[in-house]
Specification:
Helix content is 38%, strand content 15%. The protein is an alpha/beta fold. The chain has 2 domains: 14-71 and 313-408, Aspartate Aminotransferase, domain 1 (Alpha-Beta Complex); 86-311, Type I PLP-dependent aspartate aminotransferase-like (Major domain) (Aspartate Aminotransferase, domain 2, 3-Layer(aba) Sandwich). The strands form 4 sheets. It has a 7-stranded mixed beta sheet with strand order 2-10-9-8-7-3-4, sandwiched between helices. A 4-stranded antiparallel beta sheet has the order 11-12-15-14, with helices on one face. A two-stranded parallel sheet has the order 1-13. The radius of gyration is 21 Å and the shape is globular.
Length: 410
């Protein structure tokens, strides 16, 4: 487990300042949009997992945001509903073109359409990969802390799990290459990567991803790269996202890259994602394992995804400015108002990973549930007990309400 460290906000570099100026310039050009991230929208009794699973608690846990999705997505959904027929659906040409343009413009990747496998979500894809490439006695490998399904999907394949902790070096979370080399076995078949990293908020560099892909090649592992948070990066010039799609061809051939508009444009409940798999053998094996075990993707999901990739950029830029201010306010609050807690300003996502080990309580999430009526994500589920994850993808006023409850419970 990494050492306790003092909370800190990243210093604002000149590159970060230029990035903010660039975002503001683009924002000003679309100022007429008037996107609203401050007006609360009640989600109680809407069938929301976040709010209705434990209705007696104030939720800051599961990773969806409290913001209405972009108007362009709502318009596309209304238009599709107005059509009135919702039979079995397939990806239409507009979606295929939108994905190709997105991958070219945002991910710097030219991807043939036949390399894409459409999915109803990324968690099933993690399970599919474990089942497709592992046999009895094999193992899946990942680095912790990490999104809980990463450390649970091996059960679906009935194989072993190898976990290696990320470590704190040079003011950032990094891979422990020595520990990974010692931990990997000849039976290890799949490496599950989360980039940007949830819950650490780290955006791994090109050098790190190339080194990881080389590690996978050396040990004959399929690299499954979950990049669902790749459009939620605060300072792209300073910490650009390096996708597995950008790897050299000899390394990319053993990769499965998982992408989705769900987190960025807050449409997780519509259930759409896709995998990019360059190698024909890996792609056919992955698809064959799917069999008849996954549900159909809905007609609404395809059109929402197209609208997100086609028309969602102005909203995304506004969102990142708002979330950036939330992140900075949260770090300042934890640093100045919450003795016993520490946090590092994440480079991506709207999720804060808070070190609560100095509180001296066995289960910090349960402590804040009992003392403050809060529903937080328990670090134990991510592989690191003693930590909590706080979702600040909400109005600033609501975020501060939750933080005040944490402070009062200390």
């Amino acid at each position: 487990m990494p050492p306790v460290h003092v909370a800190r906000a990243r210093s604002t570099s000149s590159a970060a300042a230029k990035n903010l100026e660039s975002l503001l310039t683009i924002r000003d050009k679309s100022a007429a949009m008037n996107f609203d991230f401050d007006t609360p929208i009640s989600r109680r009794e809407s069938g929301s997992i976040k709010y209705d699973r434990r209705p007696e608690l104030d939720p800051y846990w599961v990773a969806d945001m409290d913001f209405a999705s972009p108007p362009a997505i709502l318009t596309a959904l209304h238009q599709r509903v107005d059509h009135g027929i919702f039979g079995y659906a397939q990806p239409h040409q507009g979606l295929n073109d939108a994905i190709a343009d997105y991958l070219r413009d945002r991910r710097n990747a030219q991807v043939p359409q036949d390399h894409i496998v459409h999915l109803g979500g990324l968690v099933p894809a993690l399970s599919l990969a474990a089942r497709a490439f592992c046999n009895s006695g094999d193992a899946v490998m990942t680095c912790t802390p990490v999104y809980p399904p990463f450390i649970n999907v091996h059960h679906d394949a009935k194989v072993a799990l190898i976990k290696v902790d990320h470590v704190w070096e040079n003011e950032q979370w990094v891979f422990d290459w020595q520990a990974m080399t010692h931990a990997v076995t000849p039976e290890t078949k799949v490496f599950l990567l989360c980039n940007p990293q949830n819950p650490l908020g780290r955006v791994f560099s090109s050098e790190e991803i190339i080194q990881l892909a080389t590690f996978c090649e050396t040990h004959d592992l399929v690299l499954v790269s979950d990049e669902i948070h790749c459009d939620l990066i605060y300072d792209e010039p300073t910490t650009p996202h390096y996708s597995a799609l950008n790897l050299p061809a000899e390394l990319a051939k053993r990769t499965i890259t998982l992408l989705s508009p769900s987190k960025t444009w807050n449409i997780a409940g519509l259930g759409y994602a896709f995998a990019v798999i360059p190698d024909d053998t890996i792609r056919r094996k992955f698809s064959a394992t799917r069999g008849h075990t996954l549900s159909e993707i809905t007609a609404l999901s395809y059109f929402a995804a197209e609208a997100a990739y086609r028309h969602g950029e102005p909203w995304r830029i506004e969102l990142m400015l708002y979330l950036r201010a939330n992140r900075d306010a949260l770090v300042e609050f934890i640093t100045t108002r919450c003795p016993g807690l520490s946090v590092v300003a994440g480079e991506a996502t709207y999720l804060a990973w808070i070190d609560a080990r100095q509180l001296g309580v066995k289960n910090p999430a349960l402590h804040f549930e009992k003392k403050a009526g809060l529903f937080l994500s328990d670090g134990n589920n991510f592989g690191w007990p003693g930590w909590i994850r706080f979702n600040f993808g909400c109005s600033r006023a609501r975020m501060l309400e939750g933080l005040e409850k944490i402070a009062a419970a200390l």
